[in-house]
Amino acid sequence: MRIQPFFLFSIVLAALAACSTPAERITNEATSYGFSSRVIEGGGFSHQIYRNNHKGHSQKATLHVYLEGDGTPWINHEWVASDPTPRIPLMLRLMAKDMLPSLYLGRPCYHGYSHAPPCTPDLWTGARYSERVVASMSQVLDKLIEVEGIKSLVFFGHSGGGALAVLLAERYPETQAVITIAGNLDIAAWAEMHRYTQLHRSLNPASRPALDPGIHQLHLIGGRDTNITLQLIEGFESRQQNSELVVVSDFDHVCCWTKLWPEVLAWVSTVENSEGMVKKDLQLRF
Questions:
Q1: Whole-angstrom distance, CA of residue 47 vs CA of residue 203
Q2: Which residues, other chains included, contact 212 with Cβ-Cβ below 8 Å and sequence gap of 6+?
Q3: The domain at 22-272 falls in which architecture?
Q4: Taking each helix axis from N to C terminus, what angle separates 187-194 and 230-238, rounded to the nearest 10 degrees?
């Protein structure tokens, strides 16, 4: 049987993709969106970042910061992964829909740097949300804020990136809003529910003081999510003073947040142009 050239080409592309690393695949995807790539040092670690390069329509210097989930810290919950880089870069795909200046901020030891000193496996396992991790990411942001004159920050985080979004937001008076998707906002309850080893070397958002009431918060959870459930978020969210918790019944941990993102960005735009508390009659058309 003769193989048609189109199918042969598809087979070759699939084979090349299978041989590439997660970091290479993310870089290729970022390039397809027209994002620029850069590596910035923070806390002695190399952080991969991507920028969408949009100037936007705002007159103020605003930066949207996108934080990915935990990726693959473990293999089958038994063996520590040699490379925790995400296989499904959901936040990269969401940033591709954002028309305002945006930053995809990689964690220390991710994106091909897991074997680079001073990386050790605890930084993507038990200490994945540790002070050392958060501080290193904060140092990268500090450099960009100073160089670019950033006046306002909006943090977006998925899963474990939601935890980091909250932990970073509390450090910046420039923070205007935090949006989490299936955020791991109570890591102790999450570990207990799944019978995982507790992340004792990590900071737990649920144990931190409530965020400044001037920070608008939107926490999204999928009704079909079995990894991060509504019960894991309710305790954290109930302590916040300027927050909305929205359940999207047909979504799970990953699917289908790209469909919803234009509505989320519309909500963010409303917040960025408002003053004070989130209005309870704000239309969340989810």
A1: 20
A2: 170, 173, 175
A3: 3-Layer(aba) Sandwich (3.40)
A4: 160
